[in-house]
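Thread: PPM-type phosphatase domain-containing protein, structure

OP (GT): Posting the sequence first so everyone is looking at the same thing. Length is 404 residues per the record. Can we get the structure tokens written out before standup tomorrow? I want them in the notebook alongside the other entries.
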Amino acid sequence: MDRSLAVERVLRGVQPHALLDGLRAALSEHFGAGDVELLMADYSLTELRRVTVLPYTTEPMPVAGTAAGEAFTSQSATFEPGEDGIRANLPVTVRGDRLGVLAVTLPEEPEPPVWAELGRFAEALGHEVFVADRDTDLYVQARRSSRLTLAAEMQWQLLPGRACSRPEFALGGQLEPAYAIYGDCFDWSASARTLAVTLVNGMGEGSSAALLTNLAVNALRNARRAGIPLDAQAELADQAIYAQHRGQEHVATLLLEFDLATGEITAVDAGSPRLWRLRDGKAERVHFDEQLPLGTFEDTLYTAEILQALPGDRFVFVSDGVYNAAGPHGELYGDRELSQAILTTADLPAAHVPSAVLAELHDRRHGGLAADDAMVVCLDWFGSNPSADGESDIASAATGETSV
């Protein structure tokens, strides 16, 4: 049997909690691997943690300044010679969502095709871990440097992922402080023809804010999956929140829908997180007709607006936890600082931008605790991909809308 097929068959056949053990045995048998480790990125994307039977039992590896961390951030393999051979750090990524790094040690330097083969196993492992999360907590626990608050647990379970990419766009999002968030959230979903992006900033604190955000996100998903226009989606979610809280709680929301063929954007601003656009080297705030947050009054009507995305545009969304962040002398992180941060990170991939902006906020506080949670989402718009239209239409007819 072909050894690649043999390894992939092992990955598909083992129990979800035993993925690493199965892969380790298969790589030892077919490639002579001496050591195989899976390092999962933690929620803050600053550490890589080894998958072990029990959580919190090994020292984390920092992303900054390590070969494994470089493989994670650059999304390309890195290599380390050592006494036991050569160690390859291979990105474990699913459709642009970076999960971690597969570290494989071989006794001697192999031919380049072998590294490519191992890289494909890392990708296959990522897909298996993604599915395994439905059946085991092992990989979720490995991502944690400490316990999450209940509110953070609820929020992280809402997210579609922290990054995704297609020929038309690339997305990345991050929440901070990662282990104690409560009101901020983002959501996205792509079909053959559209990309929907939702930014949510629920009022309140703790688990009550997380419950409010859960209601808002699921009400919006329910409306979106019914296939109704964007303004009607906002109205149905508004009614659901008002019915539950009678105007005492509300949710600031920005809804966008991108036409993947034309770049036309339909938007509904319901007291939203802010949107910035980087175009031709200039960062500027995108202003909408700001309407009432969802749940403020009964039977609120919402109006959609239209704008145009051009190939090369970058869109950066931020919640009030970013632009209301206070510096050491009480000064707020204003438009000037945010504009500069967007320009400074212009050369980074979309998946890296949120963490870079949030790291600047952390430095601005000199490591102090944040007064509010913060959300940053970055979207790079590449333009339509005509060659994929036929395949997309076939996939759409077969499966309908797909989350990415």
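GT: Both are above now. Quick notes for whoever picks this up: Residues 150-381 form a domain with the Phosphatase 2c; domain 1 fold (CATH 3.60.40.10). Confidence is low (pLDDT under 50) at residues 388-404.
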